[in-house]
Amino acid sequence: MKARGDRLSAAGMLTELAAIGEDPQGGITRFLYDPAWRQAQQAVARMMREAGLAVSIDAVGNVYGKLEGTDREAPSIVTGSHIDTVKCGGRYDGALGIAAGIAALAKLKRSSGQPRRTLEVVSFCEEEGSRFPLAYWGSGNVTGCKLFDGSLDAVDAQGISLREAMAGAGYKPAAHRASRRTNIAAFVELHIEQGEVLEREQRQIGIVDAIYGQRRYFVDIAGRSGHAGTTPMPLRADALAAAANMIVWLRKAALEAGDGLVATVGKLEVSPGIPNVIPGNVRYSLDIRHRDEAVIEAFCAEAFQTFAAMAEKHRVTVQQTCWLSEPPSPPMDAGLKERLARICEASGYSHMPIGSGAGHDAGLFARTCRTAMIFVPSRDGISHSPLEYTAPEDIERGADVLTKLLYQLAYELAERV
Ligand code: HGY
Ligand code: MN
Ligand code: MN
Q: Is 183 helix (H, G, I), strand (E, B) or coil?
């Protein structure tokens, strides 16, 4: 039986969470409201209780661990991240911020007793957009930044609606807005970098400036299925041939755009998907990101104009549907960034300012309260993969910086946050 202390270390909790939702490819898959997700949130609630925190679960399944402050009127200082993963993802994305947050509050409770401002760690129910065509279901409801009108009818790959999945997990779908919070003074998220900048620059801590904007689309192409052997090439309305041309164009255009713009086609569905049938329908996903919304807008406009011309040439129709449009976040809080830099220097940790190409819950909080984000290195910059890895000493450094900032905000500087 592991010693309680070890079990409540960030690394110990990460190891336990990594065993929940393990898939045959060696990655982790925990989708909103699925059995692995429920098991993980139950484990998080238990870890929070073992850490001596008051546990509550809100209307959408966000799990909170609270260390009540002496000043019960003051808004809370919150840390945390998301419990859901991409399909066949890694063990650190999201889970690190939850585990380190629980470890930080456990340590502060032991070493410093009751804080002046209430401290909370939250395990957000969903951030990735992996199961349903929506993202930030947890922090979007809590911050009120997303109203999710119509989202309850969104369906997953099996045709199950968010409404059904939510009810099946024991939540009241119509009550999702009850998870809104208006008493949060500051939010701090510890997360893996998911890129290779810290490793390349040989820095131990990243202090995030801002989070890039992103848009995600479905692109639907309708042609005409037909016989692979009897349909002459010039007469075909081949949806997959059209899609292939578009996808090749996207990569070339993104490479030529440079300046950090990224375009990704991660999913491609071909119908009927039979070797001797010309594909009549194709749906592919499109994910475009940049730190400047105007650049995203211009790239998408050029892309969709190009797709329309390609569709005509291929005698097919094309339609784009945007299901996620997240603008670049406001800048992270300058005062909190300054404090993080001072904490790193006093602790002997190298650090650097860094932008985030990955989206995060902190991006929504940055629109509603003082927000900061701390990165630790990802080996070879790999993430959203079973190969995702962050060294134990990097986890410890990240958790230490987080703990020290939370101490300053909830014990030392309570009145000035
Ligand atoms: O895809 C992302 O930006 C993040 O991992 N949710
Ligand atoms: Mn992710
Ligand atoms: Mn993440």
A: coil
Using the 3D structure, point to which of 297, 326, 355 is the last residue of a domain: 326
Q: Which of 291, 326, 361 is the last residue of a domain?
A: 326
Count of the separate structural domains present in the chain: 2
User: What is the whole-number distance in angstroms between the Cα of residue 327 and the centre of ligand 2?
Assistant: 17
Pair (336, 303) in one structural domain:
no
What tens digit of pLDDT does each residue of 253-284 get? 999 999 999 999 999 999 999 999 999 999 99
**97 and 73 together in one domain:** yes
Q: Are residues 220 and 94 in the same domain?
A: no
CA of 86 relative to ligand 2 center, distance in Å: 6
Our mutation pick for probing the ligand 1 site, out of 83, 194, 356, counting the most ligand atoms within 8 A of Cβ, is 194
Contact 357, 195 (CB under 8 A): yes
Nearest alpha carbon to residue 402 among 166, 36, 121:
121
- Between the alpha carbon of residue 157 and those of residues 130, 153, 154, 269, 363, the distances in Å are 10, 13, 10, 11, 27
Q: Is the bond into 275 cis (omega within 30 degrees of 0)?
A: no
Dist. CA 225 → ligand 1 center (Å): 35
Same domain, 198 and 95: yes
Domain of 244, in residue numbers: 213-326
Q: What is the CATH number of the domain that holds 248?
A: 3.30.70.360
Q: For residue 43, is pLDDT > 50?
A: yes
- CA–CA separation, 231 vs 81, rounded Å? 53
Q: Which residue has the tokens 């449009």?
A: 325
Residues whose beta carbon lies within 6 Å of some atom of ligand 1: 127-128, 358-359
| Ligand 1 atom 6 nearest Cα | 128
What count of other Cβ atoms lies within 10 Å of the Cβ of residue 316? Answer: 24
Identify the DSSP state of 224: B
358 Cα nearest atom in ligand 1: 3
61 Cβ contact list (under 8 Å, min separation 6): 32, 33, 41, 125, 138, 166, 169, 171
Residues 230 and 376 in one domain: no
Same domain, 155 and 190: yes
pLDDT, tens digit, 9 for 90 and up, residues 349-395 = 999 999 999 999 999 999 999 999 999 999 999 999 999 999 999 99
Q: Do both 159 and 281 map to the same domain?
A: no
pTM, two decimal places: 0.96
Taking the C-alpha atoms of residue 351 and residue 375, their distance in angstroms, rounded to an integer, is 9
Ligand 1, residue 383: give the atom nearest the CA. 5
Q: Which atom of ligand 1 is nearest to the CA of 357?
A: 3
